[in-house]
Amino acid sequence: MIASDSIQETALRLMEKAAIEIPDDYLSGLRRVADKETGDLSAFVLEAMLENYDAAKEDRRAMCADTGVPRWYVKMGNEARIEGGPIKLEALLRGATAEATTSVPLRPNRVHPLWRTDHNNNVGLNAPEIEYSFEPDADWIDITTVHKGGLFGTDYRMLFPGDGIDGIKRFFLDTLISFGKRGLACQPAIIGVGLGGSKDTTMVLGKQAACLRTVGDRNPDPKVAELEEELIELGNSIGMGAMGFVGSSMVVDCHIECGYCHTGGMPMSVHAFCLSSRRATARLHADGRVEYRTDPAWFTPYSRRESVEWANAPISSAKSA
User: Is the dihedral of CA 114, 120, 123, 129 positive or negative?
Assistant: First the structure.
């Protein structure tokens, strides 16, 4: 049984770590693009941000004044048992969000869309978001918090099969140029791309690709992995660098996640995480152990549902069912 006290304590610590400590994989990736940056203003911004990250960790203060909108991702082992059940888990995560807003502190960014009601704790209607995934043969739960920028940095387009890879690249370029020119995202960033699924699914996949995979990770499908590499090179060749200034450091990494879609379309979404790539994960075991890390390990063969279990099911059994 995973104790509720352990969940509460862990969730609070995750909120602090995400707000303050840059994940090592992203920090290494950012330093690589900074070393290659040729634009003067872009290079200045990158140097300032790297110094800011060091200062934030030393002073234990949030690395960015806009701390985004905290959200949670929970991966539950099939044999995991939680004290109080999933309802208690959600209450604890919401409570940790509210408490961390004061204790870290985080900027209270959540308001009602119409009345602008603000409870000053980042909690309200459908906030914070909590998404779930599951894993077989496990009795642990993974809890990940992501502090995602909540204004822009996201776009969607319904492409068609005939658009092909060239259409994907064209929309990718259109989106990044729009982000840079209009100040709709904080670059350089990890860019997530969702391909396929329904409209809502492709948006979810793209955001997860941006927020829940580490720099240097490649999709297990070799052709998709090759496209990820191509998009990184393409994104850094448009003449934009940090925060939209002239440069060559628009993309730290690009991750693509796919889902089967309607035969007549090819939905696509593009998401920029942000220059402050904020995520933290902990695994809570049934024996009370808690292990902290920065790789969410969200995508697994099971979570991607790569197998097609019913491909050879006899037609007669389907009819009888």
Answer: positive
Beta strand 69-77 pairing with 279-284:
unpaired
The two structure tokens encoding residue 138: 């496990």
Note whether 68 and 19 are within 8 A (CB).
no
Q: Which amino acid is at 88?
A: K
Instruction: List C-alpha distances in Å: 89 to 15, 108, 137, 242.
Output: 15, 22, 21, 38
At 113-126, the pLDDT tens digits run 999 999 999 999 99
Its pTM stands at 0.93
Give the up-direction half-sphere exposure of residue 239: CA atoms within 13 A in the CB hemisphere.
Answer: 3
Sequence-separated (6 or more) residues with CB below 8 Å from residue 166 = none
Residues 197 and 103 in one domain: no
Residues 140 and 235 in one domain: no
Range of the domain at 219: 154-272
Read off the pLDDT of residues 305-315 as tens digits, 9 standing for 90 and up. 887 676 665 55
